[in-house]
Amino acid sequence: MKYLSCKSARLQKFLSALMLTIFLFGQISAQQAATAPATLSAAEKQLAEKITVETIKDITAALSADNMQGRGTMQPGGDLAANYIADRFQKLGLKPLGDKGTFLQKIDFKESAFAPETAFRVGDENLTFGTDFAIAPFSAGNKSASGEMVFVAYGIVFDKIKRNDLGDVNMQGKIAVMLEGPPFDVSKTDWKKSEAQRIFIQNLWAKGVAGIVVIGHGREEHSPEMMINYSSRRQISRCLSPTRLSEYSPAVR
Predict the structure, then answer these.
(1) Of 13, 73, 88, 186, which residue has the fewest beta carbons closer than 10 angstroms?
(2) Tens of pLDDT along 145-161?
(3) Per-domain residue ranges for the chain?
(4) DSSP the chain
């Protein structure tokens, strides 16, 4: 038995050394393949010769300049960046495939932003938009809601586990105040996979609530500060044709 153990150990050591050799050989072969010079066509060689450190520095500096404003969509900086790149394409002698024989193609976007008077008041206290609260999902139009605020925990209504966070309260016309899920006894993975938050929010809308306030408690996927910052920004979206709009279904967030 002692001899067999020794033999087994030696065999294991041999196999380990063999695998290490194979791994190293494979790694060396991969490195050799990676460093093998690629065969370029005459046109590719001509373009490659024009790529210099100075060219990269100049283009990077131009596109990251302050006047480019981050190259934001539907902002002057975005148009400046597009025109700059189009001009570079033209100087390289590329074939234009954009609108009317240019390097530019028109894409229609829609910009939505909250009005300055957007407000949220609790009792006598006015909260600050973009810091204390934000509104989601984004919807166009002047809309307002008011009513008695009712805390509904996570809004869970699930007969199988005999849990009803709403109790017997008539939610018609009320403002539901709910916690961002998941609860402590539910895994984040299961909560997200089952889309539980969306289901319970839809249940509240079905009961006729005037509005829903969602507050964080530390277990949500994204912090309240992050969500408030994101949701209070201007929103940019593609302008879709009626046929394309039918591909998207509404969602509650």
Answers:
(1) 13
(2) 888 999 999 888 888 88
(3) 1-36, 43-107, 120-245
(4) -HHHHHHHHHHHHHHHHHHHHHHHHHHHHHHHHHHSPPP--HHHHHHHHT--HHHHHHHHHHHTSGGGGGG-TTSHHHHHHHHHHHHHHHHHTPPP-SGGGSS-----EEEE---TT--EEETTEEEPBTTTB--SS---S-------EEE-TT--EEGGGTEETTTT---TT-EEEEEPSPPTTS-HHHHHHTTHHHHHHHHHHHTT-SEEEEE--S-SSS-HHHHHHHHTS-EEEE---HHHHTT------
